[in-house]
Specification:
With about 270 residues, the protein is mainly alpha-helical. It contains 11 helices and 2 strands, in the order αααααααααββαα. Strands 1-2 form a two-stranded antiparallel ribbon.
């Protein structure tokens, strides 16, 4: 019960943090313009006419990425602790293989995020990744694979997105819940579904607006004689509803890491009484 209370409190902190991020990003993206149009209503803003995203929060080695890699490292250590101390208690080899695969998968996720240490040690990128004729040419000149090809970026991301946003939902409404092995692997605690739903909130609108091509960012500003007159409300609303007024992909990755952490903690709690 204490463990589930910790989970509940953790989710509460997460929600408060999300509200802060949304408020900050909204002000950063639209605050200057709204303040200029309606100063008596939107009387204070930290936004500027440059708009964009907060470098401290969203850019490389910023707040979001730092929290994310910290959570990933913590999760990897949790799984290593579980595997080496309790692997003999696993009900089947399938569970043991799952934990091993998850350790390797999250390690790849972690090391790719820090460009295999380049972000901290600042070593030069290997020439192998700088050759434009090479299949592994890195488009950002970094020491990682996910900026070289969709094979190493989009495909793993799609799999992780499905796992973190739909796994408990699928488990709950299918016959998979009748299998003890799959129950342990997929849903060590059914309350993980909260994070599933939270992720879907930040995934589905973006997919709808992006796939239908509803958003045209070039139409956001109303300019007359090179002077800003206001926002195109339809475009602005589309951007807000799809959560495209901040770095959504970075935020989704933070939620992926958060899901893996609590999934691993609940899985560990089954063997550490």
């Amino acid at each position: 019960m204490k463990f589930e209370k910790l989970y509940k409190n953790s989710n509460l902190i997460l929600i408060i943090f999300i509200v802060f991020l949304l408020a900050q990003a909204f002000d950063q993206s639209f605050g200057w313009g709204i303040n200029k149009i309606y100063p008596e209503i939107y009387f204070m803003t930290f936004g500027t006419k440059d708009e964009g995203w907060s470098e401290f929060i969203w850019f490389e080695n910023g707040l979001i990425e730092t929290i994310q890699i910290t959570i990933l490292l913590f999760t990897i250590l949790i799984l290593l602790n579980l595997y080496f101390l309790k692997k003999n208690l696993f009900e089947s080899t399938l569970i043991k293989k799952f934990v091993v695969i998850e350790i390797f998968g999250l390690s790849y996720f972690f090391f790719e995020e820090i460009s295999w240490g380049q972000h901290f040690i600042n070593f030069d990128t290997f020439e192998f990744f700088l050759d434009k004729d090479n299949f592994f040419y890195n488009h950002q000149g970094e020491m990682n694979l996910h900026n070289t090809s969709r094979i190493f970026n989009e495909f793993p991301r799609i799999f992780v997105m499905i796992w973190c946003s739909l796994s408990i939902v699928i488990f709950k409404f299918t016959k998979l819940k009748n299998s003890k092995e799959f129950a342990i692997i997929i849903a060590p605690n059914i309350k993980l579904i909260f994070i599933n739903y939270l992720l879907l909130i930040f995934i589905i609108p973006d997919l709808i607006f992006t796939k239908l091509g509803i958003i045209d960012f070039s139409e956001l500003h109303i300019i007359e004689n090179e002077i800003f007159k206001g926002f195109n409300l339809d475009t602005m609303l589309s951007i807000i509803l799809s959560f495209n007024f901040f770095r959504l992909s970075e935020f989704q990755e933070l939620l992926f890491a958060y899901y893996f952490m609590w999934h691993s903690l609940f899985l560990r709690s089954l063997y550490f009484k």
